[in-house]
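Researcher: Let's continue the batch. This sequence belongs to Monovalent cation:proton antiporter family protein, and it's 620 residues. Same format as the previous ones, please.
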Amino acid sequence: MEHGASVTSLVIVILAAFITPILLHRFKLNIIPVVVAEIIVGLIIGQSGFDLVEQGSWLEILSTLGFIFLMFLSGLEIDFSIFASRKKRAKPENRGAGAPNPVWVALIVFSGIFALSLGLSYLFVLGGFIDNAFLMTLIISTISLGVVVPTLKDAQMMKTTIGQTILLIAVIADLVTMVLLAVFVSIYGESGGNTWLLLLLFGAGVLLYFVGKKFRHQSFVETMAKGTIQIDTRAVFTLILLLVALSETVGAENILGAFLAGTLVSLLSPNPEMVKRLDSFGYGFLIPIFFVMVGVELDIWSLFTDSRVIILIPLLFIALLLSKILPAFILRKWYDMKTVLGSGIILTSTLSLVIAAATIGRREGMIDEQMEGALILVAVLTCLVAPILFKKIYGRFEDEDHKTVVSFVGSNRMTLPVVRELDITSYETHLYHTKLDKVDEKISRSCFDIKELEGYDLENMKELGVFEVDLLVASTGDEEENATIARYAKEQGVERVIARVESPELATEMRDLNISVFSVFLSSKALLKAMIEAPNVIDILTKQESALYQINMNNSMYNGMHLKEFPFTGDVIMVRIFRGKDSIVPHGDTELQMGDRLIVTGSSEYVDELKMELEYCEWC
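Model: Same format as before. Here are the structure tokens for Monovalent cation:proton antiporter family protein:
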């Protein structure tokens, strides 16, 4: 009977996790993060609501695995390439005067956050709310990377200097507080190990990193990564469990091992397709169970039986705001007051690590169950309030002068005509080539600003800023050189890379690295075949009056709207919708979604009108 009740509870939790995003979409509640909604649904079906869920081994195991996988994906989200480059690729924005170095500014702001959090923690100790100032410092200073990243993406700020600065502050906070949480357990935990044993864990991480770096591009590994073997995914899960087990062995928390595994995979620049699979498995199955169970186990009504806890909730919320907003005033040197306040408020959001710290604190007897619930409740409130206030205070990000920056490595008859055709209001182009002969130089110098290179030395090109762009095209006369440049550009964090490659084997390798490939031979063959079989298609591609255009769907007002309900009636036909890696043939029941790339054809007048309508990002 107990087994049946356990399975029934699991089914209820799974159904709750499944229905939650559907309800958010149906009632247009996209402003609420899904993880917060899952906790709220957990409150409804758990102890605070209808009490439909009974604890059991199934839920306990899956919830623990969900938390471990959440910490792994948090580590995987960290892009370490933003620390590597001295010159950042962020675009200056019209709200700031000058472009500060995001790394140094982020370090200074986080130092201020940590120092202020420490001071506020001692006030809570003096007030009798908690006995351990170290634990409260970690709770106040942590920042939720899982809330900050999607909020910045929605605001189209990820490529701006202020966006990178906010992201870096959250990344540093995630790293530092996670490591300090492990140190905390080793020092104060009754079952904790020696702090020095943590070095063994990090040493094992370094060793595994070099092993992974050596084998990641081996041909046999790439072969076994396909089909039913999926050796890369198996390696990731082996790494997680190995470091989790080692973490527990040295007396640290299992989540530290999971977080370390995520950072190692991130450092190894994993295949984007594999990352997508891991995200799908984590956020599609395990992680929702964990967040629903957080709500299930939280008894809100018991919190209000203790006057001390009732006073703590608003005081802690205020402390979280002060600890982030006051240090953010360092940004006032470069940005206006709205930007400073908005940045401080979005940094207030905190969730996963607060849950971890509160759970550990209760387990070690430092706080009681009511205090744990109060800490988690405040964390949930910050994730609800911070994104909404950020959008209200900061408003729409104004970057009217933003251009896509493109580097062309190799100036020849393939690239020069393309440069001339690109819209100068949308693209900023930079041409690079080795020393030109006199005839070519006389022709090209009159029309193009080509920067000469002594040779295609990667480090020298990096110093010249070749890789500090949004898009890089490698089109020298040597396909091996193009492949080398393209690989390095990906390692440097260039989002889109295009390489001119003719051999099929090399082209396959490039595509596996998420590098776009073009071939003169294949392009010519495809064009000739199309002219024979479908000449009208060629007309669409080549004639200005019937050209194809790309429009990015950024206007939240049309998010979730069916095409048959779309109010725009101009002379425009939607040919294709690209959504992530998917290519969708549009029809009446197709829903528009934020981030869609629409391929349309029609008169330029109506296309421009539609572009203004859909690419305008309007904040509520």
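Researcher: Any comment?
Model: The chain has a mean pLDDT of 79.
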